[in-house]
Amino acid sequence: MNKTYNYINLLFYVVILAGCSTPKSRVLQPPAPPVLRVDTTKINPDSVSIPSVTEALTENQTPALPILRTTEDRIKEMMRQGINKNSDWTEAVHYDIRKPNFVVIHHTAQHSINQTIRTFQLEHTKVSAHYVIGKDGQVVQMLNDYLRSWHAGRSKWGNITDMNSVSLGIELDNNGREPFPEAQINALLTLLDTVKTKYQIPFTNFLGHADITPSRKDDPSVFFPWKKLAERGFGVWYDESNLSPVPADFNYVDALRIIGYDVANLRAAIIAFKRKFIVVDTSGNMTEYDKRVLYNLYRRYF
Ligand SMILES: [Zn+2]
């Protein structure tokens, strides 16, 4: 009973913490009691009582409207699934919530910020993002930074195969065939500054959706100002004044892979690389100039 209480107590603090944009661990975490012994009693997570909105209704009450699960209900369900039934349980006292370590930038390929928000709120679409930024610079947050948004889909960067678990997704209202207004980019830069500092995200970890899904996606488009972002400390760029010839033994496929690209579909990886860094030519062929750009990036950062 005591352990069950502790478990619910843990859930309570995690739920509260997850519901806030700023962790308030100093305020919310009580002094932890010392662990004096290991209780080897197995806890069956299914037996842990977690009241939900549905259970709160008495037998004779019929809801007039369909009951939607609250965010707290969803988090409680996810927490329950995170307990390994085959392990003994004793509670750790030092921990916090996992935080994002990558940012993935998208364009919405839709016609308005309102259309995108509606899309993300429809049950059947199964997509979401942490932030949506309008053309006028309006920033709308749709999901707590600590929660896992469904923005990347099947993706790979280096050896990371679940980018949704490690990243924030930011959608820019843009149909994919138009430039990004200055107000929108300025709002993005301010947001990136905030999350980079808050979560200590490495500058190399600011990516585009196409970087991590080269076979499936092409966003953000060639209009996206990657060079400007790199100058502000978000992502990488090459030294245009120092594009030296590549060595005879330079293997551009290895270089693309080492930078992070999934080269399983090499042509798709080359196109994603060129859309971002070459811009004026997005063919699937690596020219001598393209190789110099890649070599420069490879030597500079990796
Ligand atoms: Zn995307």
TrEMBL record:
What keywords would UniProt list here? Cell wall biogenesis/degradation, Hydrolase
Q: State its Enzyme Commission number(s).
A: 3.5.1.28
**Which reactions does this protein catalyse?**
Hydrolyzes the link between N-acetylmuramoyl residues and L-amino acid residues in certain cell-wall glycopeptides
Name the top EC class: hydrolase
SMART domains, sorted: Ami_2
Give start and end of each N-acetylmuramoyl-L-alanine amidase domain: 88-221
Task: List the protein's name.
Answer: N-acetylmuramoyl-L-alanine amidase
Record organism? Sphingobacterium suaedae
